[in-house]
Amino acid sequence: MFKESFRNKMNGFQTMDEGGSGKSGKGFVKKAAGIVLGIAVIALLALNSAYQIREQEEAVLITLGRAQAVTEPGLHFKIPFIQQVRKVNTTIQGFSIGYSEASNESQEAESLMITSDYNFVNVDFFVEYRFSDPVKAVFASRDPVGILGNISQSCIRTVIGSYPVDEVLTTGKNEIQSAIKEMIIERLEEQDIGVQLVNITIQDSEPPTAEVMEAFKAVETAKQGKETALNNANKYRNEQIPQAQAKADGIIKEAEARKTERINEATAQVARFNAMYAEYVKNPAVTKQRMFYETMEEVLPGLKVIIESPNGDMQTIYPVEPFSVFGTDASQEISESPSQTEADSNIG
Predict the structure, then answer these.
(1) What pLDDT is attached to residue 43?
(2) Residue 119 and residue 178 in one domain
């Protein structure tokens, strides 16, 4: 049998038994290959039909070109090869303008700007953003972050160009940041690309060259000296004004007291004059004579006035002196000085 089979093989023939065994071997191989292929296809479909969304992500499910947002985190399923999924990171992200985050080196093409008073200045910014609408972030534009960067640079240059260099470098940073943020938000609302601006901050602002930087530092030192001088002056003013005010109040009160005193004195003098006038009206001659004597007493307090009656007798001595002065010696004094008596009589 073996020799016959060998002879048939040499002549190019096979026996019936050998042909049947060869066909059965090939069929088994095909079946095995089909099973492996089916398992691979099923595994591929299974892997391609499930996707997972993390807490910080949102997905866009695309079904034959139609987009739908999927915001719930967890495991989701899709139709393989018909539906596609594109994930969007919804956390707060950021990028720099004017410097490189990796090397922290300045990029003058972005940072160099001109102010309203025609001075150059280097200003660095950091922009923080997040995707607010995943569908618009995927389909509204090809590069939403790039658009945000271009809008930010445009708004930054517009606002910086409306401020003088002193405010850009020192006191106006907060106001500049607020103005830039409002302008960027308005532009993003117009573009509607699914990106939301969270914040924009000035990281650094300085003159473009070392010489100019030194000059600005000198100016800043002078401003600080000015503020110190103003503070000292205000302190001195606050110390002196209360003292001066107190002194002025004292002068005013003293003047008011003097005013009241003078008014009362004048009122008394007016009352006295009115009383004298009333007496004068009653007896003008006597009042006039008495006023004359009183005035003479005030003008010449040491003068002795002797009034003699027509018959030669002494009637009145003015001002009145103690009676001890006028005794027996009175006639002698008068006789011894007739010229004085005559002069006094003439004055009377």
Answers:
(1) 63
(2) yes
Higher pLDDT, 227 or 15: 227
Q: Which of 171, 188, 208 is the last residue of a domain?
A: 208
User: Which residue carries 């110390």 as its tokens?
Assistant: 239
Q: What 3-state class would DSSP assign to 71?
A: coil
Question: Are 252 and 235 in a shared domain?
Answer: yes
Region of poorest pLDDT, from 47-51, 56-60, 156-160: 47-51
Q: Long-range contacts: 53-56, Cβ < 8 Å, 24+?
A: 53/87, 56/89, 56/90, 56/91
Q: What is the DSSP string of 262-291?
A: HHHHHHHHHHHHHHHHHHHHH-HHHHHHHH
Question: Between vectors from CA 138 to CA 134 and to CA 142, what angle results, nearest 5°?
Answer: 145
Same structural domain, 151 and 222: no
- Above 50 in pLDDT, residue 343? no
Enclosing domain of residue 117? 93-208
Mean pLDDT across 108-123 = 88
Q: Please name which of 115, 112, 135 lies closest in space to residue 123, comparing C-alpha atoms.
A: 112
Report the chain's mean pLDDT, rounded to a whole number. Answer: 78
Domain count, the chain: 5
pLDDT for 322: 44
Q: Are residues 115 and 196 in the same domain?
A: yes
C-alpha dist (Å) from residue 246 to 239, 250, 252? 12, 6, 10
